[in-house]
Amino acid sequence: MASVVSIDKLTKTYENGFQALKGVDLEIEEGEILALLGPNGAGKTTLISIICGLVNPSTGKVMVGGHDVIRDFRQTRSLIGLVPQELTTDMFETVWNTVTFSRGVYGKKPNPALVESVLKELSLWSKKDNMLRELSGGMKRRVMIAKALAHEPKILFLDEPTAGVDVNLRREMWQVVEKLRETGVTIILTTHYIEEAEEIADRVGVINGGKLLLIEEKAALMKKLGRKQLRLELSEPLKVLPESLGAYNLTLSEDGTALIHEYQGEEGQGTIASLLSTLASEDIHFRDLSTRQSSLEDIFVALVGEKVGENA
Ligand SMILES: Nc1ncnc2c1ncn2[C@@H]1O[C@H](COP(=O)(O)OP(=O)(O)OP(=O)(O)O)[C@@H](O)[C@H]1O
């Protein structure tokens, strides 16, 4: 698939000497949903701001739709829609005007039919004559998306689209993003919420300390780094792990009532069959068994060495 955004050896050192990006290479593919995951201060907003032409890079190159973001700022900016973290818009303006004016900012001719279709797409049509301050939080967020879509961008950046919103609204936003993807827009979102990346992204990039630690198809990432765990609840507690089980990657729970076997991806299947037959021959019986697969959250914690989430 073709790249719509191409980032080469990008660094950013702010005026106070702080290096927020330390050499980022990234290709963003047309039509994908890419989630950039990282703790506070990782450099996500800096990266987005450079792509959008709002912050100058220190070194490196960023191309959007084949154009350089500095030299061809107007062209690249018109290809991009940005939904910032903060709701930055006039609360006394109507929904209709907010979206219509935004189109004008990009020098695009008025197109009421397009504004109508964007508002309908985002379920805002019935609110078109309301002032923004009269809308619920979820509707205001949707207006920010409509505003960013008014000039028909090919790439949409959503910076923390669901920060601080409740679970229902978060799900609603995910549906909005899914619908937008169907229209062919490439979507890049930054998030603290692993669940969000897990739910809607095609690829996940993990940023920490100004570096892109990895970028991978979500499914491949889960397969590659995901660990599985098999837990056997024993009928009779064991005092120690029998030597005959030494070949398996096993731990005995503290109270001796459960055996826990950890394995990576799909590698464990043969091992499990052999483990179960060894247990039977050792006369060790179990009354229950459960398996657990590590989530993106576990993978992230292992990579970044810290937890992100609601309090991040
Ligand atoms: N204008 C600036 N001058 C100096 N340092 C800055 C400036 N803007 C950001 N930084 C620093 O750069 C680092 C990266 O910030 P950035 O906003 O890109 O992170 P982020 O990953 O988006 O974090 P968050 O999730 O909190 O929004 C932070 O340590 C921040 O304090």
TrEMBL record:
Q: Give the GO molecular function terms.
A: ATP binding; ATP hydrolysis activity
The record's annotation in SMART domains points to: AAA (SM00382)
SUPFAM superfamilies membership: P-loop containing nucleoside triphosphate hydrolases
Q: What single Pfam family name could you report for this chain, choosing any that match?
A: ABC_tran
Give residue ranges for domain ABC transporter: 5-234
**CDD domains annotated for this entry?**
ABC_subfamily_A (cd03263)
Gene3D superfamilies xrefs: P-loop containing nucleotide triphosphate hydrolases
- Keywords tagged on the record: ATP-binding, Nucleotide-binding, Transport
What InterPro entries does the entry give? AAA+_ATPase (IPR003593), ABC_transporter-like_ATP-bd (IPR003439), ABC_transporter-like_CS (IPR017871), ABC_transporter_ATP-binding (IPR050763), P-loop_NTPase (IPR027417)
Protein family: Belongs to the ABC transporter superfamily.
In Swiss-Prot or TrEMBL terms, this protein is called ABC transporter ATP-binding protein
- The protein's organism comes out as Neorhizobium galegae (Rhizobium galegae)
